[in-house]
Specification:
Elements lengths: L3 H8 L8 H11 L3 E5 L5 E4 L5 E4 L15 H12 L5 H10 L4 E5 L4 E5 L5 E6 L8
């Protein structure tokens, strides 16, 4: 069973989207099977395989207003520059809010990250790249 401190330690290592696969590798090894992240307030909920949930919210995360009009194009652009290391997490969250993303759901079994709008519509589903040494 993972602890919030374990999660926070892994989160602290993320500087840009380029660090995301390593973060996923770490939390998967801890026993996390799903992670839901809410863009408006930064709330992250981590689930283990028995559906036990633990919540973590970033310190100093100002509330964001989610755009009523979702845009797959805006989101894909934000993802592209974030994953190439051009933006930090906060900048990406602001861009995701502008693209109409209410939350994203990380499924560590399927190794996907799905971005949803406020109606629950899927905007983008990405495969999470595996790092060397993953099982």
């Amino acid at each position: 069973m993972f602890s919030l401190q374990d999660i926070k330690t892994a989160e602290a290592k993320i500087k840009t989207g380029a660090d995301f696969p390593q973060f996923i590798k770490e939390i998967k090894e801890m026993g996390v099977v799903r992670n839901d992240v809410y863009v408006s307030n930064g709330l992250s909920i981590y689930f283990d395989d028995e559906d036990n949930a633990q919540q973590a919210s970033p310190q100093g995360y100002p509330a964001l207003i989610i755009n009523d009009e979702s845009s797959e194009d805006k989101l894909r652009h934000a993802l592209k520059i974030h994953q190439s290391g051009e933006t930090d997490y906060w900048t990406f969250c602001k861009q995701a809010a502008d693209a109409g993303v209410e939350k994203w759901v990380i499924d560590l079994g399927a190794m996907t990250c799905t971005y949803l709008d406020s109606e629950g519509n899927e905007l983008v589903r990405e495969k999470i790249p595996k790092l060397k040494g993953w099982k």
